[in-house]
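Let us work through a complete example step by step.
Step 1: write down the sequence.
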Amino acid sequence: MRNNPKIASLASTLAAAVALLATTPAAMAQKVCEGAELVTPGKLTVAYNGDMPGTGTRDGKLIGIDGDIMTLVAEKLGLEVEPALMEWAAEIESVKSRRVDIMHGMMGWTLPRTEVITMTDPIYFAGSLMTQKKGANITKLDQLKDKRIATVQGFAQVPELKMINPDVKLYETGDAAIRDLVAGRVDVLFLDPPMMQYISIQQPELNIESIPVTDPYDPKMPIITGKFQILFGMSKEAPKLEQCINEAIAEIWNTCSNYKLASEYGFTDRFWFTPSGDNPRLGVDRPEDWQYPQLAGCE
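Step 2: predict the structure and record it as tokens.
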């Protein structure tokens, strides 16, 4: 029996349609990360606070260093990103309550956070900066005892700053804190180091500078005196999704993609991709033989 051209054509059309369906984000997610505990199938719902250069949106798409890396991770898992804008203080609660899959925004690893959420492997590193008006000449932590210091509510360094000065002022947003610094109502800010570097580049008229903390490492103040890991936060109820995201992060380090994306925002110094000598995660939320990821494949 000879083949019917019309039937053959119809079969080809149906095969093409099936192939197209198999490459949709939902189908790719099932293939790449089967069993991922997603709030919405086929989508990665991402909490962000809009502080650049870490996070933001343009035309409904995530931007910023963290945002671009998050988008690349989602692409590797075949997931469509669903951005969810909120204040920083609301992000952790949204992750815990499973209203979102993941949070980001220059978020650092801390021991208390391990008790309430899961944290991924780092995407880059940062050290604390003391942001002040130019000429203030505040270079050491012991100079802060009689200064008006501030940060954002929920930031990792809050407990340590209160050890230095219990009257530390807490803001809802970084923008409000910066305005008060410029107006002279605050002396020193501890905000996200990448954000402060970005602002100094973009707005020189503010006449502010960010000086790295140079005090020796103090285990009582590991966040302020050490370097911290910038990462993503997730629910403890999503172990499979965490595994898939960590695998994607490892690939990003191995291809130098995080460095290349950060370079587009002016972060070309390897300082941002070099960890400190200590590793507080060992025996806490990582095995004793776990090692920091390292850049590879850089030109």
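Step 3: interpret the result. The longest strand covers residues 227-234.
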